[in-house]
């Protein structure tokens, strides 16, 4: 069995690297690397909480302070490393449970930091809401799954 990737930002180039930043996690927010993030008025980061909503494509990165795997979460009040991804980059993110996605399936925020398939009718998706597309077909049943996402 192939070992799972231990990085979040998977495809970048010298001209297309993630734009990195750090901020405190909002109180009561536990953030897992790969989560889609939002930035609140206080400048803190938290899981993107608006299902199907627009996003800056800010993605939580590996917790270097812990220096363990990508499943090691940041706790509330801890400094979170995150990156802004842009079109064409690949990130290792989490697809919510009960989703079937092909390479052509648009993914949007699930409202909890994970992604879900875009169920809106063609043309009805709010501009800026599509996060990306799966690099490989995937089905989640019974649990969430980490997947490679090509950023839209």
Textual characterization of the structure:
The protein has 152 residues and is mostly beta strands. It has no helices and 13 strands. A hairpin with a 5-residue loop joins strand 3 and strand 4.
How many strands appear in the DSSP assignment?
A: 13
What order do the strands of the largest sheet run in, or round the barrel if closed? 2-6-5-3-4
Distance between the termini: 30 Å
Shape: globular
Count of runs of 4 or more consecutive helical residues: 0
What is the percent of helical residues? under 10%
Unreliable residue runs: none
Radius of gyration: 14 Å
Structural class: mainly beta
Strand fraction: 25-35%
H/E order of the elements? EEEEEEEEEEEEE
Mean pLDDT: 87
Largest sheet: 5 strands, antiparallel
Quick take:
This protein has no helices and 13 strands.
């Amino acid at each position: 069995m192939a070992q799972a990737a231990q990085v979040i930002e998977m495809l970048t180039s010298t001209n297309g690297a993630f734009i990195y930043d750090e901020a405190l996690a909002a109180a009561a927010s536990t953030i897992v690397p790969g989560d889609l993030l939002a930035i609140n008025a206080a400048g803190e980061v938290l899981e993107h909480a608006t299902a199907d909503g627009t996003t800056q494509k800010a993605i939580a990165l590996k917790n270097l302070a812990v220096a363990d795997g990508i499943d090691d979460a940041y706790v509330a009040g801890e400094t979170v490393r995150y990156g802004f991804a842009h079109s064409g980059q690949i990130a290792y993110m989490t697809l919510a449970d009960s989703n079937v996605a092909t390479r052509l399936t648009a993914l949007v925020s699930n409202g909890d930091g994970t992604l879900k398939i875009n169920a809106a009718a063609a043309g009805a998706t709010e501009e800026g809401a599509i996060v990306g597309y799966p690099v490989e077909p995937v089905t989640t049943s019974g649990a969430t799954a980490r997947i490679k996402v090509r950023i839209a």
